[in-house]
Write a structure and sequence with these properties.
Blueprint (H helix, E strand, L loop, with lengths): L5 H11 L4 E5 L11 H9 L3 E4 L1 H17 L5 E2 L4 H10 L13 H12 L4 E6 L4 H8 L5 E5 H10 L28 H6 L1 H4 L5 E5 L1 H10 L8 E5 L17 H13 L2
Parallel strand pairs: 1-2, 1-4, 3-7, 4-5, 6-7
Helix pairs in contact: 1-7, 3-5
Length: 263
């Protein structure tokens, strides 16, 4: 276990100490895991509660829509992607005024969990390595431990947790259906209703490092653009570095859609 990340080791320590823990599962999880099987496996691993981060994404949407209503002439860049946030800070600091001052889905979920399960350790499980920096640098007060799907799979292996039929009898403690498309490029724009509220020139959906960089570089001069829904990974969070999957991008996207519609 010498090659384990600091976060993976911390999770193992929490499990061994039988501490109270809440798993906050990012909405890209269907790319890697089956539902409700994954909930049962997490509970057997030692988690007291398991919640969908798509619930926090609902709050992110509400906050963004409230900003748009309060400041109808302002232009916003969405903030769920910590890589994009850091790109703006480091390369395009003049765009910080446009970065939406709202909670990311992870932070919003952590706040919900903190109120409902106040004595539990919050563990975010997702596809993104940069979420670790978000937790440590942007949301330190929320005390979130971040592990990737890959790291969770390592812990399952170490603790010999394998799927069981009884795992399928479980369900989320907190869930949200409307934002389950969030990890797909454009998921925020669609689930928030922005695509119906704005005209085509007024919003843009972007994913992938090259296109993201190009779009940010042109943002100031693109006066018609009011909302930029932007993610760093090609295709969205379904292509994050914390995911180990042989599936094509189209297949990953389809898994998210299938879960969203309840298949």
């Amino acid at each position: 276990m010498d090659n384990l990340s600091v976060e993976t080791q911390e999770l193992i320590n929490l499990i061994d100490k039988r501490g109270k823990m809440v798993a906050m599962l990012a909405p890209s999880f269907p790319v890697v895991f089956n539902y409700p099987e994954i909930v049962g496996m997490l509970r057997r691993l030692g988690f007291t509660r398991v919640v969908e981060v798509s619930r926090g994404a609902e709050e992110t949407n509400k906050q963004l829509l409230a900003l748009m209503k309060l400041h109808p002439y302002k232009r916003y860049i969405t903030n769920p992607c910590p890589t994009i946030v850091r790109l703006i800070r480091n390369k395009y600091p003049y765009l910080l005024q446009h970065l939406a001052p709202i909670d990311s889905p992870m932070s919003a979920t952590a706040k919900i969990v903190a109120k409902k399960y106040s004595k539990h350790k919050k563990v975010f499980i997702g596809p993104c390595l940069m979420k670790k920096l978000e937790a440590k640098e942007d949301s330190l007060e929320l005390d979130i431990l971040v592990v990737t799907y890959k790291e969770l799979q390592e812990v399952f292996k170490i603790k010999n947790i394998k799927p069981k039929l009884t795992d399928n009898l479980t369900s989320f403690d907190i869930l949200a259906k409307s934002t389950r498309l969030y990890p797909v490029s454009g998921g925020l724009a669609q689930s928030s209703g922005i695509i119906k509220k704005l005209t085509d020139p007024e919003y843009d959906v972007v994913s992938g490092p090259k296109l993201a960089d190009k779009t940010l570089n042109e943002f100031i001069s693109n006066y018609d653009l009011k909302i930029l829904d932007i993610l760093n990974c090609d295709g969205g969070c379904i292509n994050g570095p914390g995911i180990v999957s042989p599936d094509s991008l189209d297949r990953r996207r389809q898994k998210i859609i299938n879960y969203w519609v309840g298949r």
